[in-house]
Write a structure and sequence with these properties.
The protein has about 290 residues and is an alpha/beta fold. The chain is about 40% helix and about 20% strand. It folds into 2 domains: about 100 residues, no CATH class; about 170 residues, Four-carbon acid sugar kinase, nucleotide binding domain (Molybdenum Cofactor Biosythetic Enzyme, Chain A), CATH 3.40.980. It contains 10 helices and 11 strands.
């Protein structure tokens, strides 16, 4: 951060002193982690003493927040304008301190499961047991899901869900849900699931989507008008994370895997990764806003 020719940056004082006749002051880590008011007074003192560079020791994001808050407080009521040359954590800290980076409200995660495997059912039970996940089965047991009714069900579930919740929409949750669809019905199931999800997403924000089972991911990408999935990571073998490319939901964070991939806790690992992925992008990309299609 700079104030005219005065800077608050994490670097070595000698680096600045060696580049010219600059007045350099330092603030130690002990001072950064001390009382916030004392830190602000110290920054103000160095500025009053005509320091052109103030080098501050910092090791964590919390330390950067403290430094930014102190810098803004130290020049309150003056015409000083703080800027940063760092597009990373220091800029975020300064923006927060200046009231320019309001917290982005979170949204639930959505799980779409079209897999009927015993492993998938086990993974979903484990997810519900260990995470704030709320499971719902698609409407019309032992049949291709009714799109309208399932979309209404998902609407209500997302209405009631908090930012930390995981809404699970599955074609099969228990063994009693199993049935033997015809080949034609088998191709219609993922399409109906994706269509119901798209209708719900038109009026509800979500932070990310996890899909499991056969053609569910392909059906969802087609339904959302996406060109494809830009893969960023492999969560576990045959389970990948990335974001949608193109279409109204461009940038939506997604993790996907097959119904026979992993062990009992693999779905948990995928949702934990998705949550981390969302948090990592929170400062750059807001939660996916609802899209009204006309």
């Amino acid at each position: 951060m700079t104030r005219g020719r005065r800077s608050v940056r994490r670097t070595w004082p000698t680096c600045y002193a060696s580049r010219g006749r600059l007045e350099v002051a330092t603030i130690t880590l002990d001072e950064v982690t001390g009382e916030p008011d004392a830190l602000a007074r110290l920054v103000r003192h160095h500025l009053d003493e005509d320091a052109e560079v103030v080098v501050v020791d910092a090791m964590t994001a919390e330390h950067l927040d403290r430094v930014a808050t102190a810098a803004v407080a130290a020049t309150a009521g003056t015409d000083t304008v703080w800027t940063t040359s760092d597009p990373g954590p220091a800029s975020v800290a300064l923006a927060k301190a200046m009231g320019l980076a309001d917290e982005v409200p979170g949204a639930p995660l959505l799980v779409l499961s079209g897999s009927a495997t015993e492993l998938t059912r086990l993974q979903l039970r484990q997810l519900v047991a260990e995470r704030p996940a709320r499971p719902f089965r698609t409407v019309d047991q032992h049949a291709v899901p009714d799109v309208d009714a399932t979309a209404r069900l998902l609407d209500e579930a997302l209405d009631d869900a908090g930012a930390d919740d995981i809404v699970v929409l599955a074609t099969v949750l228990e063994e009693s849900d199993l049935w033997s669809p015809s080949p034609e019905e088998a191709t219609q199931i993922p399409v109906a699931l994706a269509r119901a999800a798209r209708r719900a997403l038109e009026s509800h924000p979500v932070d990310g989507v996890f899909t499991t089972g056969g053609d569910v991911t392909a059906a969802l990408l087609a339904e959302l008008g996406s060109h494809g999935l830009e893969v960023a990571d492999e969560v576990v073998p045959l389970a990948v994370a990335g974001s949608l490319v193109g279409g109204p939901w461009d940038g939506l964070q997604v993790v996907t895997k097959g119904g026979l991939v992993g062990d009992a806790r693999t779905t948990i690992a995928c949702l934990d990764h998705l949550r981390s992925q969302v948090e990592a992008h929170r400062r750059q990309v807001t939660a996916v806003e609802s899209r009204e299609h006309h």
